[in-house]
Write a structure and sequence with these properties.
497 residues, alpha+beta, FAD/NAD(P)-binding domain, 2 domains, eight-stranded mixed β-sheet, 15 helices, 23% strand, globular, binds flavin-adenine dinucleotide
Length: 497
């Protein structure tokens, strides 16, 4: 049977946060976009703890903020860490200080089935032609460029779509990314395995931190404890790949064994029961998730989200990187389709910004692992950082600036940006004021969060948030040398004046 052949402007592969974001921001410029998703939504996904820039920055550009608010997700004011040598958890808050808590100084803990479904339906509302139960089987191209895809429709019929651009947002486990002809390079540092399940009735941190993610280190790794509702908790152990043998037998026993060796989580789950039925009844494992592709683009095709790179679950960066990349990819494609710049130039901007964001987080997370020193433990000894690069670490403050940014958001962009610059020096104090911390960890946190912020690294996440809140009002400087700047509506690139 011959395939049904169609033409469109852009095909997006995958309906996760990366794909939905890209597709919506392309459709907002009036382009014809077909999004192909292999599953039928809502579908399960891990990655439940979000950052404020996704909720308030990207969320507003997508026009989905009110819907997210109405979904009653657990409000996350920050993270609580049993990390370092002090047994008492300390907090990092998105607001510099509790009294400054404002309209964008929080994120959500989300059931991804609900969150991803909201984003995908929102894409359809914006005119994206969303086709679920439609796995892409092949990318069509020649030496010059990628030219489309083949997929199988829900009725088993083969389809072929020709497009000017193909966006691969098909996540961690698909092989579509190989069509950009790069190599997937796995991290030597984050060679971990995650084992996770769900519990009913676990304890909560005291108010106002009850919605925080709790990350607690133990000898063999660390455990995330994410409150998804008043009673449902996502619990996952991240351990070294060298301990993979421990996961061979009964996975429930393995997870409960890790919980047993992590005092605070053991206490929090003392009266809880593991969910054993439905979507959350399964114990799942994930490995080989820390990597970056050697290239994110080739003519006609671009990688977004986990298709391109992911680092590690600690600090909730996955959905942020996926949605940020979706914004960058949409700007690039919108610019080319409008005939306003060359593909080479806009994707240089895309890849430069995306890699910068990835690298900053990579360095920060490496240093964050380094703070948990336990010379007796194989896991933590193997993760001592030897080439600590303080300059790279400074860049992390930009993220924090971005997320505690909302206080002045409804006044003026200039005032908002200047607030970011002047207040960022107080971030270290915010970390220490809001929780107990031993001196060694305190010093390192102070170094991580308290270094005076260079203008350049403050810009980007702030810009995403300011733009989300103020729309066209934000003025941006190039982030990269000789780089481009966002257009007035934030949906394309223009040359810097
Ligand atoms: P996905 O969400 O994976 O979406 C890809 C979509 O593509 C899927 O719906 C899939 O069905 C579809 N697809 C695949 N192949 C095809 C095909 N051939 N044709 C059509 N469709 C296809 N991130 C956070 O922000 N916070 C966290 O707390 C967090 N915790 C994590 C814990 C673990 C253990 C791991 C491994 C990751 C975690 N992450 C976290 C990362 C997060 O899961 C991902 O970064 C995020 O889901 C990436 O979004 P995406 O849109 O790129 O891909």
């Amino acid at each position: 049977m011959s395939a049904i052949i169609e033409n469109t402007d852009v095909v997006v592969i995958g309906g996760g946060p990366g794909g939905s974001t890209t597709a919506t921001l392309l459709a907002r410029r009036g382009h014809r976009v077909v999004l192909l998703e292999k599953e039928t939504f809502p579908r399960y996904q891990i990655g439940e703890s979000l950052l404020p820039s996704t909720v308030h920055g990207i969320g507003r550009l997508l026009g989905v903020t009110e819907e997210l608010e109405a979904a009653s997700f657990m409000v996350k004011r920050g993270g609580s860490f049993r990390w370092g040598t002090n047994p008492v958890p300390w907090n990092f808050l998105f607001a510099v200080a509790p009294e400054l808590s404002g309209p964008t100084s929080y994120a959500y803990q989300v059931e991804r089935m609900k969150f991803d479904d909201i984003l995908l339906k929102n894409a359809a509302k914006h005119g994206v032609d969303v086709r679920e139960n439609s796995p892409v089987t092949e990318v069509i191209g020649d030496d010059e460029r990628v030219r489309g895809v083949r997929y199988t429709g829900p009725d088993g019929v083969r389809h072929e779509i020709h497009a000017t651009f193909v966006v691969d947002a098909s996540g961690n486990r698909s092989r579509v990314h190989q069509n950009v002809r790069g190599e997937r390079i796995y991290s030597d540092f984050f060679k971990n395995i995650a084992l996770f399940g769900y519990f009913e009735g676990g304890k909560r941190l005291p108010q106002p931190d009850s919605g925080n993610i709790l990350c607690a280190a133990f000898d063999e790794g660390w455990i995330w404890y994410i409150p998804l509702s008043d009673t449902l908790t996502s619990v996952g152990a991240v351990i070294s790949r060298e301990h993979a043998a421990k996961l061979q037998g009964d996975q429930e026993q393995a997870l409960l064994g890790f919980v047993d060796r992590c005092a605070i989580v053991k206490d929090f789950l003392a009266d809880a029961t593991r969910v054993t039925e439905g979507t959350y009844g399964e114990i799942r494992t994930r490995k080989d998730y820390s990597y970056t592709n050697s290239t994110f683009h080739r003519p006609g095709m671009v990688l977004v989200g986990d298709a391109a790179c992911f680092i590690d679950p600690v600090f909730s960066t996955g959905v942020h990187l996926a949605t940020y990349a979706g914004l960058l990819a949409a700007r690039s494609i919108n610019t080319v389709l409008a005939g306003e710049n060359t593909e080479e130039r806009v994707f240089e901007e895309f890849e430069g910004r995306y890699r910068r964001e990835y690298r900053v987080f990579y360095e920060f997370l490496s240093a964050f692992y380094d703070m948990q020193s336990n010379e007796e433990s194989y896991f933590w000894k193997a993760r001592k950082v030897t080439n600590f690069n303080a300059t790279d670490l400074e860049a992390f403050v930009s993220l924090v600036g971005g997320v505690h940014s909302g206080e002045q958001a409804f006044t003026s962009a200039d005032q908002l940006v200047s607030e970011f610059r002047t207040s960022s020096g107080d971030l270290a104090d915010a970390v220490q004021r809001t929780g107990a911390m031993d001196t060694d960890t305190g010093d390192k946190m102070h170094h991580l969060f308290g270094t005076p912020v260079v203008r350049e690294v403050m810009q980007e996440m702030n810009n995403v948030q300011v733009r989300g809140v103020l729309g066209e009002a934000a003025r941006e400087l190039p982030l990269l040398e000789n780089g481009l700047v966002p257009s007035a509506d934030g949906l394309a690139w223009t040359e810097a004046k």
